[in-house]
Structure formats: C-alpha cells, structure tokens
Fold:
Amino acid sequence: MELVVLKSNLKEGLGYLGKIGSENLTLPILKNFLIEANDGKLKFSATNLEMAISGFIPAKITKEGSLTVPLNIVSSIINNLQNERIDLEVKGNNLIIKTENYQAKIQGIKKEEFPIIPKLENKDEFIEIDSQSIKNALLQVMIAAQISGRPELNGVLFDFQIGILKLAATDSFRLAEKTITDSKFKTNIEKKFKTIIPIKTIQEIIRILPDKNNEKVKIFFDSNQVLFKTEKFELISRVINGEFPDYQAIIPNKLSTEININKEELLNALKLTSSFSDRTNEIKIIVKEGAKNMEIFSSSPTLGENQYLIPAKITGEPLEIIFNWRYLIEGVKNMEFDNIFIGLNGSGKPSIVKPNNNQNYFYILMPIKGE
Amino acid sequence: MDKEKLWQAVLAVLEIQISKPNFLTWFKNSRLTDKTEEGEAIIALANNFAKEWVENKYHKTILEALNSQDNSIRRVKYTVLSAPLDQKSTETKKPQPSQPGFEEFKIDPESNLHPKYTFKSYIVGSSNELAYAAAMAVIKDVGKKYNPLFIYGGTGLGKTHLLQSIGNEIKNTYKNHLKVKYVPSEKFVNDIISSIRNKRMDDMKERYRTVDVLIVDDIQFIAGKEASEMEFFNTFNALYENDKQIILSSDRPPQATPVLEERLRSRFSGGMIADINYPDYEMRLAIIRMKLQEKNASLPNDIVDLIASKIQRNVRELEGVLNKIVFYQEVKDMEPTIKMIEEIINKTIKQSFKNITPNQIVQIVANFFELSEKDITEHSRRKEVVEPRQISMFLLKDLLGMSYSDIGHKLGKRDHTTVIHACEKISKNLPVNQNLNNKVVLIKEIINNK
Structure:
C-alpha cells in the first residue's frame, strides 16, 4: 500500500472511529483499526464486536493494500503532526508514516486477523433522513435512557409505522417519545416493525452525525442488525433482542391538573430553587386553588428553604407534587418550543411534560413519593 | 448423542487448536441448536461478528470435529443467538430509593404476566387445593390433561394470583419453548373493538392463535358481547384443536353464567372445572403471616388472630386491613392495640355498604334470583320466593342494621318475629350450606359494586 493523504482528511477519518475499539481486553487486535486502500478511497474500520464503524476519506492511492495498526498511536501521531501532506506506506507488517521531516514505523497485524465486519441481509429497504433531524430526535429521547439491569431498556426503540417513525427510550422512571412524520424522511419500507438499538450505538451515532441539514443518512434494518450509512461513514450494530415495554399503558389519558408555562422561566426556577434540594434532588411543585402561578419549593433541614413563583395558566385541581429536579430539567431543556405543557395526575401517578400544542414529543416522569 | 454433549466435544477439540482469547471471544455462549435429519447442524453464535468469523475461519475444523463425533452430520449452518445477551449491569446513575418507577413496566410485554405472582406466595388450603392440584397437573402436561381448565370463585380469593402463577411457572419451566399469553377478558374485548375499528382483524387473530397457553381472566365479562363471544369461540376452537392449553377464570361456574352462549358454555365445561372457596381460619392465618413477611412487618399473635377471625370472605380486604395497620405502626410508631384494630376492621367492612338504600338491596336480590320486587314483598310461600325473601331480610339486618320491625314493614308488612326467624335461619345455615353462602357473597359483591 502506498498513498498520499491530507492531514485534515486523515483526522476526519480517525474521528469517525472514536474510541470504540479500546475497551476489549480479551481480543488485543480490537485495539487496532483497519486501513484499506482501494478503488481510489481510503477506508478506516474499527469494532468492539457489538458494533463496527467505517469511515471513508479521499486519498491519492498509488498502490492498493491493507493493514491493521493500533489506533491510539496513529491518532496521537496525526494529531501532533504539523505538515498537511502525509505519505502512508505498508511494508510487510509495518505502517510507515512519512512527512518531509518525520518518519514513523508502526508494527501492525495483517488484515486477515481482524474481525470480519458483518453485512446486513437487507440491502434495499431503508429510511433516508436528514442527519440533523435524526440527531436531534435521538438527543431528545436519549435523556430518558440509562444502562440498567434490564436489557430491553438499554436502548432506543425505533417503532416504524406506515408514515411515521417513533423513537422512545425509558429507564422506567421516565420515558421520552419523539414522533418523526414522513415529511421528514423518505422510505421504501412497506411493513411496520420495531427494533431496539443499544444506548452505546446511539451515543456513537450522535457523536459522528454532522450537524448539517443537507447531509442525508440512510438507515437499514434487519432482524438482528442495524446500519447507519452516509457517503462518509457506515456504522453497523447489533440490535437488542427483547420486547420494549408496552408504554402506551403509562401515558396518562386523563389529567387532573394542566399547566401552561414559559420554558425559560421554568428552567430558571428549577435551577434556582434546586440549590436547596441537597442530595435527594427533591423539589416540590405547588398548585393552589384558583392560582395564577405555579410555586416551586425546595428545602433542606440544614440549609433552609426557598420558593419561586412562575406565572402560569392553570386548570384543574390544586395539588402538591414532588419531582427529582434533575429529571425534570432534562426533560424540559430539550424541548424546541417556548411554551411548555405540564399535565399532572395527583402526586403518585406519572406526569407528562411536552411542548405546548405539539404532538411530536413528550416526556413522562414519575413523581417522587411524598409523605 | 445429544446436542449439548456433541457441542461440548466439538468445543473441546477447538479449544486445543486455537488461542485462548480467540476461543473465548468467538465461542462464548455458542450452542448447537439443531440437528436435522438430512445431516445439517445449526450452530448459534453470540453475535454477527462471531458468526462471520467462525463461518470463514473455523468452518472446516468444526465440520470435521462434528463429523468425527456423529458421522451423519454433513453440513453446518450458522445463526446468531436470538436470546437476549447477558449484559453487564454497570449502572451509571443509581436512582434514589424514593424515586418510584413505572409499575406497568414490570409486566412482561409478551406474555402480559406480572412476575410478582408466583406459587411461592400462593397459600394452599382445603378451599383451593383442587384448583391448585389441577394447576399443577396443567403445568406438568400442558395442553393434554385438563383442557380447558376453568377456575371459579368470588373476588379477592386469588383467581388472578393462581392464573398468573400458572403462566409464570409454565414460562419458567419450559423456558422459551412455550408462548404464554395472559389477558383479562376486558382487554380481549378491547382488542377486538380496536381491531375492528382499524380493520386489523388478521393481526388480532394471529396474536391470539399463535400462543401455546392462553389464559383469560374474568371470562364472565365476555358474556353477552356477541362479537367478542364469537371471536373467542373461534379462538378457543383453533387452540383446542391444536392441543394448546386454555385456562379460564370466572366468578361463577359456566352453568351459572347468564347470557353466555350455549356452545361456549358447553366448551368451558368440557375440561376441568375447579372452584376456589373462602379460606378457612388456618389458611387465613397463614395468609396474614405471609403478607406480613412480604411487608417486613410483624404483629402480635392476638392481633393476627383477631384479623383472621374477623375478616372471613375476602383476601384482598384482609390485605387492605393489614396495610392500614402496618402503616399505623410505621407512621405513628406505636404498637397497635386490639381496640384500634377492631376499629380499622369495622371501618373497612362497613365502609363499603354505607351508601345503599333498603330498596336497592331488595332490588338487587330480586334481580339476582330473576324475580320482581313484588315477588319478594308479596305473601306467597312458593319455594322460589321464600329463600330470596329471607336473604333480603338477612342482608337488610346485616348490612344496614335496620330493626326487625322496620324490615318486616318494608317487606310486605310482616311481623317482626318472621324477620327474626329468617335472619337466624340464614346466619345458621351460612357456615354449613356452601350453596347459600355463595349466593349471599355474590349478592354482597353486586351491592358492593353499586
């Protein structure tokens, strides 16, 4: 293998790989990444055996070839090189990195030892969507996900129905659901399906998806894998086998108290009052009979207490309800609209938070049990 | 040679030939899932990477090793394990203990079973041993022995607990080989309604007819709903013909369920019918002890005795009373006295009948026996009206505490001695006459639900 590549391109290519290969201890070759030069393109791949990422960058290739080399060494070299033009060459089992005044020889392992990156059985059916839209949607639902002992919750649900794609995640204390309508995506899939994509895969895809609107990503699904594909990279991952809980059952269909409130003001109030809520993270929301504002209260036996009144439009019954303010803030922070709707159902039942007059996103949160 | 042993032998060969990290990485959780007549072995591997790797690198070795153990094997196919992988539960953030989660998520979405119901917490006594034995037989011989299994008994006696326990037990015993589905009949009806509305009847049919064990709770609610009865009838037949197990529960025996279509009734009676009765004193004691253990609480023996002797009919009520007492103990931090307990019990029992008028009671009794109110108040000694009349008198006394002469006046201007006789007769017969007891409890429940 012999080629010339620009440093900025090389950096971009390594950037796609992130750190996914670095954790595996049983199989040392996973610390390496695979360099392949053919068809006028340079391809980098890394895997942790749960997912694999490949990045494609342009390069002037004079001789095709391949090798695997340790990712961390190559990264640190490339990051510190000053020259823009870099020569790469494979000689035997060594990778030679060369510039005008620098040369490194890195011991590698042959491609044949590197895991074979699986292919999807399905090559034709996909969903095509703006990189920005899917990234935002994933960010909005990921707040409710965290790794727990239940495998089927350790991921984001992709629920494809005809005309809409629903994303949902939950850690069983809160749940976020985002609906993407088909004005935002194109697809040739004709059958509805559900699949759960692991949290780690979603974190990686959020990391590498560009924040650009004109960039498209194609998503392919089959029974046990998912593939995210753009011109520049491919990410293939296993999916979680299991059934996502039937969360329709927890969506409150009747609400006893409804509150309309300004988002910034609510965020501000939560941040301010939370200073007294010490380790328990508890804040209390108080709605009084016929009140024109909502009170947020928090106290600590050792520090003191404080309260904040936010003007709000309130209908329904008065109540007091306790939340973990971190959970509440996470839900509110990600909403794209200025006005927030909070629906409460007594102090022990799930509550719903969503942008006012918008059906595409909601966040359900369990209150903390009061006295 | 069975599949497991065969695969172990192959792994032993592979372990010697390849390096340890490779062996651990690629063959962890691998399994020989199937061996067909045509000599094809199907091997399941942990993930797609393992599948690609093993298929490309070790295929020859595996085939040779398999063949040397079992020379009928000529081909090997590779798949990916479909069972969920054991994941490292590295919890990133520990939520605080006071943060409750969504209760509904504990229910297994596929089978609809709640894992809290198991036989471990199910107490067996003389009143439910038949049902329990039948359940055990069904678990041992799914679909063959008692099909359908029909369990009936009053509310709060543990029908749901028994049904769900059967489901959970079958799931655990047969792992993933049998598909269990539990539905309250209300959900079944709703499913039918929504699938009719969405024109997705096929989905619904498939959902219910591909199971190996169908458990329908409170089947009596289906009675009188024609489309649901029809669909259930078809589902029932489809499952029954294929030797799939069906388990049903109801608050009364099939013969006593009014407006149920005859063909369904006869089908329900075709398998095994078992009843659950009111728990006797010893069993109630055992239940209280069990519940206390679950709640990590303890009560003095005389109080446990008192609760067991006072609350006789409904285990759910029993739990309600216990909850209250335990709550008092925790919050007020004091030992409950006998007097306090008596108050709590009285409140719980009486509370339910507060808002009912004498007329309503008479009406309910009349309806229950399919009589008119006039039949009850008129002066006739026909056998079919005498018992209902006496039950009415007894209930008016028992639930509302009306005076004997008031009751007599209300029910056709009778003498108060007639009423005394009736009340005494019923209360004397209640403990010995199971049939009468059932009727009275059923009527009380109807009143309660008003």
